[in-house]
Specification:
Helices cover about 70% and strands about 0% of the residues. With about 1000 residues, the chain is mainly alpha-helical. GO terms for molecular function: protein-arginine omega-N asymmetric methyltransferase activity.
Length: about 1000
Amino acid sequence: MDFFKRYGAIGPSQQQSPSETIQRLADRVETSTLLEDKRAAVLSLKGLSREYRKETGEAALSALLTVLKENREDQNLLKAVLETLTNLCTRDSPQGGTTNVGAAAGDIAAQFSQAILDDNDDVISVLLELLGDADFYVRYYTVQLLGTLHMHAGENLQKRVLVSPTGVGRLVDLLSDQRDIIRNEGIQLLIAMTESNADIQKIVAFENAFDRLLGIVDEEGGVRGNIVVQDCLQLLHNLLNYNVSNQNFFRETSGIQRLPSLLITDPSQTAAGRNGTAGFDADEEIEWTAQHARNMLVVLDVIRMLIQSGNTNTVSNQTAMQQCGIIPPLLQLALAYEAPSSVRSQALYAIGDIIRSHEANQNLFQRILITAAPEDEDVDAKPIPEPAIVIVIRLSVGKRPQGVAENEYYIVRAAAAYLVQAYVGSNPDAQLALAATLTPPGDADTATEPEKHQSAGSLIVSVLLDWRETGSEDVWRVWYASLLLSTILRDFTECKEQALKISIGDESKGEEPISLLNELISQARQAAQDGASARISLAMLTLICVWLADFPKGVATFLDESANVSFIVEQINGSSGVNALVQGVAAFLFGLIYQFDIDSETPMSREDLYPILSKRVGADQLLVRVQRLRDAKEFQYAVGLAAGTHSNAYGGIPNEVYFDNVFTDMFKQHYEGFRAAVRLSPNEALANPNYAYLQGGMAGYAGSVASGSAPGTPSLAAAGISRAASPAIPLATSVSAPSAHAQSMESVISKSELEALQAQLVDQAQQIENLQRELAEAAAGSKQSVESTEDSSEISQMLAQERELREKAEAERDAQAAQVESLSAELERLQKQNLESALSPENPDAAQLASLENQLSELRVKSEADTSSWNSERAELQKKLANAEKQVVKAAAAVRNTSKKKEQQQTAALENLQKDVKAKDEEIAKLKAQIAELESQVKEIAQVSELKSKLASMEKEQEDLLVYLADQDQQAKEYRALLRKHGEDIPLSDDDDDEE
């Protein structure tokens, strides 16, 4: 009190400025030896720190940090210092038009925060030690100060915490504090510090944080608890997000086994039969609050994060979830009609992720039966168990519950379709099982009760055929029914044949049976005539495209009705009133029909369809229609989405949803084959070496590329090369001729020498023939290699090998020719020797020798002629090989140029994507900054409100004190008067004088 009296004694002429007052107080904090004086000065600075933040920080920050490090034994002093430092580092929220002022104040707060972090004596270590202080206020304000510092310099603070040996451990210990306020502040601080720091995530996880967090959730009432539960679950999400080691640790410490209990919203609810029948009581309605929904969404997000597609631990986590029985409570949550649509949809997505590409989980899901309570009040009625897949399909294509907007219920339909696709994917047995349930609707009134006692396939078919009877609200029902039927039929001929057997119409009632395929075309025609939503027409046409792709038998059934082709052509040629997307799909469907019209029993052959294609439609117009479809933003939107994700996470119908992933995948698979097929007449298609490619889409294309016959692959003119082996015939003849003549001279020439020469000549001829065959095979092999490769380096290598082999063959031929000449010379020498001996008087066969000499002359002439022919043919072969090499070089250059262009296009596209990502990152950073600023403003507004309430309370207390003092003065006067009345000598006071 003496301190304030001294400042109050200063007269008006000696009034100090705020800066001078703050400087005097800072000096007193720094130089005072008495804790009372320090405490009084710090309290005064705390009061001034909000209004005069900059002056207080510049003058007293260093002194306050010194007190924090040196005077930790005084709890009240520590409390005041921590509050003052928090005030200095807290950003004020701008009010009205004072945005610039608020930003400047934020910069000042950030500067003071950085100054604290840059302190040489490491104030952060001191603060982490104070987290273990037993005093409530010291611990509370320490956590608040750390949170404020993290708001301004989070990365720097995280580094300082990681350096401290027990820093992270002290933060985790806050989760065990019995005082809820401190525990909750610690959770908020850990959420901020684990958002993006993997090292802190790992340390926090190994400090037994998982068990502590789930324990707090249980203490606060599970998912039905307050916002503290959401904070704990969000911290759990942060610890697992993009952290494989933490996910493994969570699974190994039985964390996954504790997730099913979080999904049960009421302890009385049970999922009877983990692998059998789940019970659902329709009479038990749970009230869902907004906080309850937020808590549940975080739990579901954690489950889906653990089983993301492509992660190495996904299969292990899927197995662990199946073993702990998480699917039944998820199903119970998905079928809780009182639950928000966002919660139900995420539960369905989670089930789909758990069973996706996991055979054991898919089989388990297949065996689950769901028993629902009866809808009527007949107590004798027994509930009928139904397979879970039937219930899920009913969610996707069934009637919307009353009181639920289609915009809200749409996300449930999308999630249910995702679950069906996850169940059918990589599961041909499930595909066949669902295809077997495809039956026409029964006699029930499908308009009023289309879902009662129907199989999965029958329900899908009834929705597709009876959409007009229930009004326009069935647009999305039809769309998803088309998606589910496409999923069942895709890439499975047996399923397509099974669906082709379905006939609509009862002959006993005089109705003409019609195949389901043609009935779908009739429905599409009716939708076009009625001017129904384009989504209905697209649903029908895309389904037919998926059905007929790679299915000639289905194409033949489609062509049974000539009106079908007329309708498709009308849709393609329509200039007005026809949606451009419908035109594109119709054009693609017509191309598929023309491409796969190869069944022997087709009622309209390709020759019948070609005039329609070339004259009524036009191949160019057909391609333009399909190209426009391919470039449409609606089609590209579907291409960019994963299977089944046709909605955002929590509500709303995207305006771009017109196509499903099944159709877009099929479109991409058959697009190139479609383009090639529609450009060829039937005769050209049959004569085309790529006929298998035209029939089989990309599958046929792959085979064509393997054989070097696919369109667009480089090829060489093989003229002449295939005849590379032809010179072997005359050469063999010419070489064998001397052998034949030599045999006629065995009588005069030494028999052993002639036999040796003959064998040697035959061997040489055989070697030459083999070399010629090897050269021809090398030329043909180089041709196929060039045609089947698109890599310029491989082409160059093959050319080099061919050139080396050719040079080797030519060298061998030269050597063989030299040996032939040598053998001929040796034969001539022997002939001369034998001739001389024959002309001697002792030889009686001179005439015979003369005849032999004539034959030898003829042999020489023939040999020279054969040699000349071989040389000319050899020159021709060399010329053709040179031409072939030039063509190979040209093809390699063309391939190289094409690859370079593609690389440039890909580089440009990548740069554009990087620019887009950078722009999005900047927008996200700005939004995060705005969010942080708004949060700070909210906190400061709350603090201002608190201060105002405190000020009002103090003013009330002051008024009460004045009243009390007035009462005391009055009582004192009365006592003095009473004493004087009884004769006591009481001196008069100033108040008594005034009274008199």
